[in-house]
């Protein structure tokens, strides 16, 4: 299967956001910004969509039992979530849409919502856009990995009268896969202060070496106080046909959340996306395993490249996702200089300054690309540095 992931496709001319931004107009530009993969969506997903198109009508529809069984089967097989029932699951058009509905359901305008920093930039956009207060708790680098500073997290939650915690697990942008102990400790803080949790677990499938632990599974309190969001879109590279789903085990919380979801009239599922999700979850286990091995290899190669050649750059050992959080501050390099120097050699990274409160001198790198291209990225980084 590796050959399949190694194949290079030209995505230009297909309105692909990632490939439409070439700030220095480089003729052989390599974008590593937007979080989708330069790896083809698997055939069984495309075939699932194609098969539905054999019937010439695309009118209003409702996801069928097979759709929900595919989700329940995937949850059980991949995350060991055997106790979910059909009622716990609802369709969401996208994960961020679900996050926005959850923020509205759990908080009022002006309320504080806690997120970890660095963090996914669109979290800030959603929280600020809904008139809530963005409250941050900084992850700390312990020389080996980014960790939750539990004392600081609790202090920030209490001092800022936080009304919801928006957790990203696994974590964008650091690639951290939270341990059970960390998840339990975060749940403990939230329980002590009555703070419900929105768990964005869109990256749940891309975990190396161990199984993803759903936040709602870490304690009884978490099961009753968490709105979780998942999607097949990162895993199977199908974010352009948005589809996601929520898991809420507490019926009261679910009703509150569902009311918000429905009031926006935003959550009408897309027929072809539903077919794609069903096909992905029914047939995708083996493909996903191979993909994870490939991404692990890519991210490890990238981390090793920096460790060996530029030990001044802080790069955590990969645990999951395909994102690398590169901290150039020990080398005395700021974001503007880095973006310009890399940009001129045709490399584009996300500016760490956009990743919530953490970092002039940090860049986010997306390593989900065919390996031959990754080697070219290393060559150019070498030239620049
Ligand atoms: C943590 C996280 N949540 C949500 C999204 C976007 O999800 P969706 O496209 O389903 O809104 C992303 C995309 O990068 C992400 O990294």
Automatic annotation (TrEMBL):
Identification of the protein by name: cysteine-S-conjugate beta-lyase
One GO MF term: pyridoxal phosphate binding
Cofactor(s) recorded in Swiss-Prot or TrEMBL: pyridoxal 5'-phosphate
Domain called Aminotransferase class I/classII large: residue spans: 30-381
Native species: Enterocloster lavalensis
Source organism, top-level taxon: Bacteria
A family per Pfam: Aminotran_1_2
Family: Belongs to the class-II pyridoxal-phosphate-dependent aminotransferase family. MalY/PatB cystathionine beta-lyase subfamily.
InterPro entries (UniProt xref): Aminotransferase_I/II_large, C-S_lyase_PatB-like, Class-II_PLP-Dep_Aminotrans, PyrdxlP-dep_Trfase, PyrdxlP-dep_Trfase_major, PyrdxlP-dep_Trfase_small
PANTHER family reported for this sequence: PROTEIN MALY (PTHR43525:SF1)
Statement: the UniProt record of this protein carries the keyword Lipid metabolism: no
EC number: 4.4.1.13
Keywords (A to Z) from UniProt: Lyase, Pyridoxal phosphate
């Amino acid at each position: 299967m590796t050959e399949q992931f190694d194949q290079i496709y030209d995505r230009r001319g297909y309105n692909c956001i990632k490939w439409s931004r070439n700030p220095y107009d480089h003729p052989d530009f390599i974008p590593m910004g937007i979080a989708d993969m330069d790896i083809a969506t698997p055939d069984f997903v495309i075939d699932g969509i194609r098969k539905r198109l054999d019937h010439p009508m695309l009118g209003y529809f409702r996801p069928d039992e097979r759709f929900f069984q595919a989700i329940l089967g995937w949850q059980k097989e991949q995350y060991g979530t055997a106790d979910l029932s059909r009622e716990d699951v609802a369709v969401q058009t996208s994960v961020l849409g679900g996050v926005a509905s959850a923020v509205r359901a759990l908080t009022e305008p002006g309320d504080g919502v806690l997120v970890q920093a660095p963090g996914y930039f669109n979290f800030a956009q959603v929280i600020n856009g809904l008139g809530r207060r963005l409250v941050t708790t900084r992850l700390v680098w312990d020389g080996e990995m980014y960790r939750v500073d539990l004392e600081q997290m609790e202090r920030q939650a209490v001092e800022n009268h936080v009304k919801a915690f928006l957790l990203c697990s696994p974590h964008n942008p650091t690639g951290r896969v939270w341990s059970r102990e960390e998840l339990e400790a975060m749940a403990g803080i939230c329980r002590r202060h009555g703070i419900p949790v929105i768990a964005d677990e869109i990256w749940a499938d891309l975990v190396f070496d161990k199984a993803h632990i759903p936040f709602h599974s870490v304690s009884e309190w978490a099961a009753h106080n968490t709105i979780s969001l998942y999607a097949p879109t990162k895993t199977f590279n199908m974010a352009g046909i948005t589809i996601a789903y929520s898991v809420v085990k507490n019926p009261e919380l679910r009703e509150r959340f569902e009311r918000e979801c429905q009031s926006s009239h935003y959550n009408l599922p897309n027929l072809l996306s539903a077919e794609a999700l069903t096909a992905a979850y029914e047939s995708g286990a083996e493909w996903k395993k191979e993909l994870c091995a490939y991404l692990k290899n890519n991210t490890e190669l990238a981390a090793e490249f920096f460790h060996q050649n530029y030990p001044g750059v802080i790069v955590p050992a990969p645990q999951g996702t395909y994102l690398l959080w590169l901290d150039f501050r020990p080398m005395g390099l700021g974001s503007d200089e880095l973006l310009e120097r890399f940009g001129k050699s045709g490399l584009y990274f996300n500016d760490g300054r956009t990743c919530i409160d953490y970092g002039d001198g940090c860049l986010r790198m997306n390593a989900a690309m065919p390996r031959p291209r990754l080697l070219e990225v290393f060559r150019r980084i070498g030239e620049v540095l």
